[in-house]
Amino acid sequence: MSAELLLVLDRRDTVVRLDVRALRIDQAEQPPQYVPLHLLGLVVVYGRALVACDVWRALAERDIPAVLLPARGGGASAWVGAALSGNILLRSAQHRAAECDVARLKLARQVLNAKLAAYQSAARRLVPVVANAGQVFSTLFQSNVEVLAIGNAPNIGVLMGIEGHAAAAWFQGLATGIAPHWQFHHRNRRPPRDPVNALLSLGYTLIGGEMLGAIQQAGLDPARGFLHESVSGREALVLDLIEPLRPAVDVVVLNLLERVLTPADFTTNDSDGCRLTKDGRARFYQAWATARKNWPDLEDAAPEAVRSLRQVCQARMAWLRMALDKYS
Protein backbone atom coordinates (compact mmCIF):
# COMPACT_ATOMS: atom_id res chain seq x y z
CA MET A 1 0.00 0.00 0.00
CA SER A 2 1.33 3.46 -0.88
CA ALA A 3 2.01 6.05 1.81
CA GLU A 4 -1.14 8.12 1.30
CA LEU A 5 -2.67 8.18 4.78
CA LEU A 6 -3.49 11.64 6.14
CA LEU A 7 -3.16 11.91 9.93
CA VAL A 8 -4.77 14.91 11.63
CA LEU A 9 -4.01 15.68 15.30
CA ASP A 10 -6.38 18.37 16.54
CA ARG A 11 -7.09 17.71 20.23
CA ARG A 12 -5.19 19.43 23.02
CA ASP A 13 -5.04 16.29 25.15
CA THR A 14 -3.34 14.27 22.38
CA VAL A 15 0.04 12.70 23.12
CA VAL A 16 1.98 11.09 20.26
CA ARG A 17 4.89 8.71 20.85
CA LEU A 18 6.98 6.43 18.68
CA ASP A 19 6.22 2.74 19.16
CA VAL A 20 8.75 0.75 17.09
CA ARG A 21 7.53 1.39 13.49
CA ALA A 22 4.24 3.02 14.40
CA LEU A 23 2.90 6.14 16.06
CA ARG A 24 1.05 5.60 19.30
CA ILE A 25 -1.66 8.22 19.82
CA ASP A 26 -3.09 8.61 23.33
CA GLN A 27 -6.13 10.69 24.18
CA ALA A 28 -7.97 11.05 27.47
CA GLU A 29 -10.49 8.28 28.21
CA GLN A 30 -9.80 6.50 24.92
CA PRO A 31 -7.74 3.40 24.11
CA PRO A 32 -4.45 4.12 22.33
CA GLN A 33 -4.42 4.19 18.53
CA TYR A 34 -1.53 2.91 16.43
CA VAL A 35 -0.67 4.25 12.97
CA PRO A 36 2.06 2.41 10.99
CA LEU A 37 4.64 4.87 9.72
CA HIS A 38 4.89 3.24 6.31
CA LEU A 39 1.25 4.16 5.59
CA LEU A 40 1.64 7.87 6.37
CA GLY A 41 1.74 10.47 3.61
CA LEU A 42 1.13 13.69 5.59
CA VAL A 43 0.71 14.71 9.24
CA VAL A 44 -1.32 17.79 10.19
CA VAL A 45 -1.07 19.14 13.74
CA TYR A 46 -3.43 21.77 15.16
CA GLY A 47 -2.53 23.73 18.23
CA ARG A 48 -0.76 22.10 21.17
CA ALA A 49 -0.78 18.34 20.65
CA LEU A 50 2.25 16.84 22.45
CA VAL A 51 4.49 15.11 19.92
CA ALA A 52 7.67 13.41 21.12
CA CYS A 53 11.03 14.32 19.59
CA ASP A 54 11.62 10.80 18.30
CA VAL A 55 8.36 11.07 16.36
CA TRP A 56 9.69 14.09 14.44
CA ARG A 57 12.93 12.21 13.78
CA ALA A 58 11.06 9.18 12.50
CA LEU A 59 8.91 11.31 10.20
CA ALA A 60 12.00 13.09 8.84
CA GLU A 61 13.86 9.82 8.23
CA ARG A 62 10.94 8.56 6.14
CA ASP A 63 10.40 11.84 4.24
CA ILE A 64 6.92 12.28 5.72
CA PRO A 65 6.06 16.00 5.74
CA ALA A 66 4.09 17.71 8.47
CA VAL A 67 2.00 20.87 8.54
CA LEU A 68 1.66 22.72 11.85
CA LEU A 69 -1.41 24.92 12.11
CA PRO A 70 -2.27 27.38 14.89
CA ALA A 71 -5.12 26.55 17.23
CA ARG A 72 -6.49 30.01 16.49
CA GLY A 73 -6.58 31.96 13.25
CA GLY A 74 -4.07 34.68 14.07
CA GLY A 75 -0.96 32.52 14.32
CA ALA A 76 1.38 31.43 11.57
CA SER A 77 1.44 27.95 10.05
CA ALA A 78 4.67 26.03 9.49
CA TRP A 79 5.93 23.29 7.18
CA VAL A 80 8.20 20.65 8.69
CA GLY A 81 10.18 18.12 6.66
CA ALA A 82 13.38 16.15 6.46
CA ALA A 83 16.82 17.69 6.18
CA LEU A 84 18.22 18.19 2.68
CA SER A 85 19.39 15.03 0.95
CA GLY A 86 22.97 14.64 -0.21
CA ASN A 87 22.29 15.66 -3.82
CA ILE A 88 24.70 18.58 -3.75
CA LEU A 89 25.12 18.62 -7.56
CA LEU A 90 21.43 19.28 -8.15
CA ARG A 91 21.35 21.88 -5.40
CA SER A 92 24.39 23.62 -6.90
CA ALA A 93 22.65 23.70 -10.30
CA GLN A 94 19.60 25.25 -8.63
CA HIS A 95 21.68 28.04 -7.11
CA ARG A 96 23.54 28.69 -10.37
CA ALA A 97 20.25 29.02 -12.25
CA ALA A 98 18.80 31.29 -9.56
CA GLU A 99 21.85 33.56 -9.74
CA CYS A 100 21.66 33.85 -13.55
CA ASP A 101 19.12 36.52 -14.53
CA VAL A 102 18.38 34.91 -17.90
CA ALA A 103 17.93 31.41 -16.46
CA ARG A 104 15.84 32.63 -13.54
CA LEU A 105 13.52 34.60 -15.80
CA LYS A 106 13.09 31.62 -18.13
CA LEU A 107 12.17 29.27 -15.28
CA ALA A 108 9.85 31.84 -13.70
CA ARG A 109 8.05 32.25 -17.03
CA GLN A 110 7.56 28.50 -17.26
CA VAL A 111 6.09 28.39 -13.75
CA LEU A 112 3.63 31.14 -14.57
CA ASN A 113 2.68 29.66 -17.96
CA ALA A 114 1.92 26.37 -16.19
CA LYS A 115 -0.34 28.21 -13.75
CA LEU A 116 -2.27 29.94 -16.55
CA ALA A 117 -2.74 26.59 -18.30
CA ALA A 118 -4.00 25.15 -15.00
CA TYR A 119 -6.53 27.99 -14.72
CA GLN A 120 -7.90 26.97 -18.13
CA SER A 121 -8.31 23.34 -17.09
CA ALA A 122 -9.77 24.35 -13.73
CA ALA A 123 -12.40 26.54 -15.38
CA ARG A 124 -13.59 23.58 -17.44
CA ARG A 125 -13.84 21.36 -14.36
CA LEU A 126 -15.76 23.98 -12.41
CA VAL A 127 -18.61 24.22 -14.90
CA PRO A 128 -20.89 21.93 -12.78
CA VAL A 129 -20.31 23.88 -9.53
CA VAL A 130 -19.67 27.52 -10.48
CA ALA A 131 -22.42 29.29 -12.37
CA ASN A 132 -20.25 31.12 -14.92
CA ALA A 133 -17.11 28.96 -14.96
CA GLY A 134 -17.28 28.58 -18.73
CA GLN A 135 -16.86 32.35 -19.13
CA VAL A 136 -14.21 32.88 -16.44
CA PHE A 137 -11.25 31.73 -18.48
CA SER A 138 -12.23 33.38 -21.76
CA THR A 139 -12.75 36.69 -20.00
CA LEU A 140 -9.57 36.37 -17.98
CA PHE A 141 -7.22 35.50 -20.81
CA GLN A 142 -9.01 36.86 -23.86
CA SER A 143 -6.82 36.73 -26.98
CA ASN A 144 -3.98 35.15 -24.95
CA VAL A 145 -2.99 38.62 -23.74
CA GLU A 146 -1.60 37.28 -20.45
CA VAL A 147 0.38 34.51 -22.16
CA LEU A 148 1.94 36.98 -24.58
CA ALA A 149 2.75 39.33 -21.71
CA ILE A 150 4.59 36.54 -19.87
CA GLY A 151 6.75 35.87 -22.92
CA ASN A 152 7.63 39.55 -23.21
CA ALA A 153 8.15 40.26 -19.50
CA PRO A 154 11.61 41.80 -19.07
CA ASN A 155 12.08 40.94 -15.40
CA ILE A 156 10.67 39.10 -12.37
CA GLY A 157 8.86 42.18 -11.07
CA VAL A 158 6.77 42.42 -14.23
CA LEU A 159 6.04 38.68 -14.08
CA MET A 160 4.81 38.97 -10.50
CA GLY A 161 2.57 41.83 -11.60
CA ILE A 162 1.07 39.63 -14.33
CA GLU A 163 0.55 36.80 -11.84
CA GLY A 164 -1.17 39.12 -9.38
CA HIS A 165 -3.45 40.54 -12.06
CA ALA A 166 -4.37 37.08 -13.37
CA ALA A 167 -5.10 35.73 -9.87
CA ALA A 168 -7.23 38.75 -8.95
CA ALA A 169 -9.24 38.42 -12.17
CA TRP A 170 -9.65 34.67 -11.60
CA PHE A 171 -11.08 35.11 -8.11
CA GLN A 172 -13.22 38.03 -9.20
CA GLY A 173 -14.71 35.83 -11.89
CA LEU A 174 -15.31 32.97 -9.48
CA ALA A 175 -16.95 35.32 -6.99
CA THR A 176 -19.72 36.09 -9.47
CA GLY A 177 -20.56 32.39 -9.76
CA ILE A 178 -20.43 31.32 -6.09
CA ALA A 179 -23.71 31.49 -4.16
CA PRO A 180 -24.04 34.78 -2.21
CA HIS A 181 -24.51 33.08 1.17
CA TRP A 182 -20.83 32.04 1.06
CA GLN A 183 -19.94 35.77 1.20
CA PHE A 184 -16.97 35.34 -1.16
CA HIS A 185 -16.15 38.59 -2.97
CA HIS A 186 -12.38 38.45 -3.50
CA ARG A 187 -9.29 36.69 -2.18
CA ASN A 188 -8.30 37.66 1.37
CA ARG A 189 -6.12 36.02 4.02
CA ARG A 190 -4.21 36.40 7.31
CA PRO A 191 -6.78 35.84 8.56
CA PRO A 192 -9.38 34.83 5.94
CA ARG A 193 -12.72 36.57 6.38
CA ASP A 194 -15.18 34.13 4.77
CA PRO A 195 -15.57 30.34 4.43
CA VAL A 196 -14.24 30.06 0.88
CA ASN A 197 -11.09 32.01 1.69
CA ALA A 198 -10.62 29.94 4.86
CA LEU A 199 -10.70 26.74 2.80
CA LEU A 200 -8.42 28.14 0.09
CA SER A 201 -5.82 29.24 2.63
CA LEU A 202 -5.92 25.88 4.37
CA GLY A 203 -5.67 24.00 1.07
CA TYR A 204 -2.69 26.04 -0.13
CA THR A 205 -0.93 25.46 3.20
CA LEU A 206 -1.50 21.70 2.98
CA ILE A 207 -0.13 21.36 -0.55
CA GLY A 208 2.83 23.50 0.49
CA GLY A 209 3.71 20.91 3.13
CA GLU A 210 3.54 18.12 0.57
CA MET A 211 5.67 20.06 -1.90
CA LEU A 212 8.26 20.80 0.77
CA GLY A 213 8.62 17.06 1.35
CA ALA A 214 9.17 16.44 -2.37
CA ILE A 215 11.73 19.26 -2.60
CA GLN A 216 13.73 18.05 0.38
CA GLN A 217 13.64 14.46 -0.80
CA ALA A 218 15.09 15.59 -4.15
CA GLY A 219 17.86 17.50 -2.36
CA LEU A 220 16.86 20.97 -3.57
CA ASP A 221 16.97 24.10 -1.43
CA PRO A 222 13.37 25.06 -0.53
CA ALA A 223 14.41 28.66 0.22
CA ARG A 224 15.85 29.43 -3.24
CA GLY A 225 13.17 30.06 -5.86
CA PHE A 226 12.91 31.65 -9.27
CA LEU A 227 9.56 33.44 -9.49
CA HIS A 228 9.44 34.33 -5.78
CA GLU A 229 12.25 36.34 -4.24
CA SER A 230 14.42 34.71 -1.59
CA VAL A 231 13.43 36.28 1.72
CA SER A 232 14.59 35.14 5.14
CA GLY A 233 12.11 32.68 6.63
CA ARG A 234 10.25 32.06 3.35
CA GLU A 235 10.33 28.84 1.34
CA ALA A 236 10.49 30.52 -2.07
CA LEU A 237 10.88 27.31 -4.10
CA VAL A 238 7.84 25.78 -2.39
CA LEU A 239 5.83 28.85 -3.37
CA ASP A 240 7.12 28.59 -6.94
CA LEU A 241 6.23 24.96 -7.40
CA ILE A 242 2.76 25.14 -5.87
CA GLU A 243 1.71 28.03 -8.15
CA PRO A 244 0.54 25.65 -10.91
CA LEU A 245 -1.20 23.52 -8.26
CA ARG A 246 -3.28 26.32 -6.75
CA PRO A 247 -6.05 26.13 -9.39
CA ALA A 248 -6.48 22.43 -8.53
CA VAL A 249 -6.94 23.40 -4.87
CA ASP A 250 -9.64 25.81 -6.05
CA VAL A 251 -11.37 22.93 -7.87
CA VAL A 252 -11.22 20.69 -4.79
CA VAL A 253 -12.43 23.43 -2.44
CA LEU A 254 -15.32 24.63 -4.60
CA ASN A 255 -16.55 21.06 -5.00
CA LEU A 256 -16.91 20.86 -1.21
CA LEU A 257 -19.36 23.75 -1.03
CA GLU A 258 -22.88 22.49 -0.26
CA ARG A 259 -21.87 18.87 -0.98
CA VAL A 260 -19.69 18.47 2.12
CA LEU A 261 -19.73 21.81 3.95
CA THR A 262 -22.22 24.61 4.53
CA PRO A 263 -21.70 28.11 5.97
CA ALA A 264 -22.86 26.70 9.33
CA ASP A 265 -19.59 24.72 9.49
CA PHE A 266 -17.60 27.94 10.09
CA THR A 267 -17.19 30.47 12.87
CA THR A 268 -15.94 34.03 12.46
CA ASN A 269 -14.54 36.66 14.80
CA ASP A 270 -12.41 39.77 14.40
CA SER A 271 -9.15 38.33 15.72
CA ASP A 272 -9.17 34.83 14.23
CA GLY A 273 -11.12 35.47 11.04
CA CYS A 274 -13.16 32.62 9.60
CA ARG A 275 -12.40 29.06 10.70
CA LEU A 276 -13.90 25.61 10.41
CA THR A 277 -15.81 24.28 13.40
CA LYS A 278 -14.65 21.00 14.93
CA ASP A 279 -17.31 19.01 13.06
CA GLY A 280 -16.64 20.91 9.85
CA ARG A 281 -12.93 20.24 10.19
CA ALA A 282 -13.56 16.51 10.46
CA ARG A 283 -15.64 16.49 7.28
CA PHE A 284 -13.12 18.67 5.46
CA TYR A 285 -10.19 16.36 6.24
CA GLN A 286 -12.21 13.31 5.26
CA ALA A 287 -12.83 14.91 1.88
CA TRP A 288 -9.23 16.15 1.61
CA ALA A 289 -7.89 12.65 2.29
CA THR A 290 -9.95 11.38 -0.63
CA ALA A 291 -8.83 14.28 -2.83
CA ARG A 292 -5.14 13.56 -2.08
CA LYS A 293 -5.59 10.14 -3.67
CA ASN A 294 -7.66 11.44 -6.60
CA TRP A 295 -6.17 14.86 -7.25
CA PRO A 296 -7.37 16.79 -10.33
CA ASP A 297 -4.66 16.33 -12.97
CA LEU A 298 -4.98 19.69 -14.71
CA GLU A 299 -2.10 18.85 -17.09
CA ASP A 300 -4.22 16.11 -18.66
CA ALA A 301 -6.79 17.21 -21.23
CA ALA A 302 -9.24 14.52 -20.11
CA PRO A 303 -11.89 16.25 -17.96
CA GLU A 304 -11.89 13.59 -15.22
CA ALA A 305 -8.15 12.80 -15.16
CA VAL A 306 -6.73 12.34 -11.67
CA ARG A 307 -3.44 11.37 -10.01
CA SER A 308 -2.41 11.24 -6.40
CA LEU A 309 -1.22 14.55 -4.99
CA ARG A 310 2.12 12.90 -4.27
CA GLN A 311 2.45 12.05 -7.99
CA VAL A 312 1.56 15.62 -8.95
CA CYS A 313 4.29 16.98 -6.66
CA GLN A 314 6.77 14.49 -8.06
CA ALA A 315 5.87 15.59 -11.60
CA ARG A 316 6.73 19.19 -10.72
CA MET A 317 10.03 17.98 -9.31
CA ALA A 318 10.74 16.00 -12.48
CA TRP A 319 10.12 19.13 -14.56
CA LEU A 320 12.51 21.15 -12.43
CA ARG A 321 15.25 18.52 -12.45
CA MET A 322 15.09 18.40 -16.24
CA ALA A 323 15.13 22.21 -16.45
CA LEU A 324 18.22 22.34 -14.23
CA ASP A 325 20.19 19.74 -16.20
CA LYS A 326 22.02 22.35 -18.26
CA TYR A 327 23.28 24.06 -15.11
CA SER A 328 24.76 20.88 -13.59
From TrEMBL:
Q: Which domain of life is it from?
A: Bacteria
EC no. given is 3.1.-.-
Is Hydrolase included in the keywords of this UniProt record? yes
A Gene Ontology molecular function term of the record: endonuclease activity
What cofactor is needed? Mg(2+); Mn(2+)
The entry's Mn(2+)-binding residues are: E163, H228, E243
| Membrane spanning residue stretches | none
List UniProt keywords, sorted A-Z. Answer: Antiviral defense, DNA-binding, Endonuclease, Hydrolase, Magnesium, Manganese, Metal-binding, Nuclease
A Pfam family that this protein carries is Cas_Cas1
Biological role stated in the UniProt entry:
CRISPR (clustered regularly interspaced short palindromic repeat), is an adaptive immune system that provides protection against mobile genetic elements (viruses, transposable elements and conjugative plasmids). CRISPR clusters contain spacers, sequences complementary to antecedent mobile elements, and target invading nucleic acids. CRISPR clusters are transcribed and processed into CRISPR RNA (crRNA). Acts as a dsDNA endonuclease. Involved in the integration of spacer DNA into the CRISPR cassette.
Subunit architecture: Homodimer, forms a heterotetramer with a Cas2 homodimer.
NCBIfam families membership: cas1
PANTHER family in the record, alphabetically?
CRISPR-ASSOCIATED ENDONUCLEASE CAS1 1
Q: Know the name of this protein? A: CRISPR-associated endonuclease Cas1
> Native species of this protein?
Thiospirillum jenense
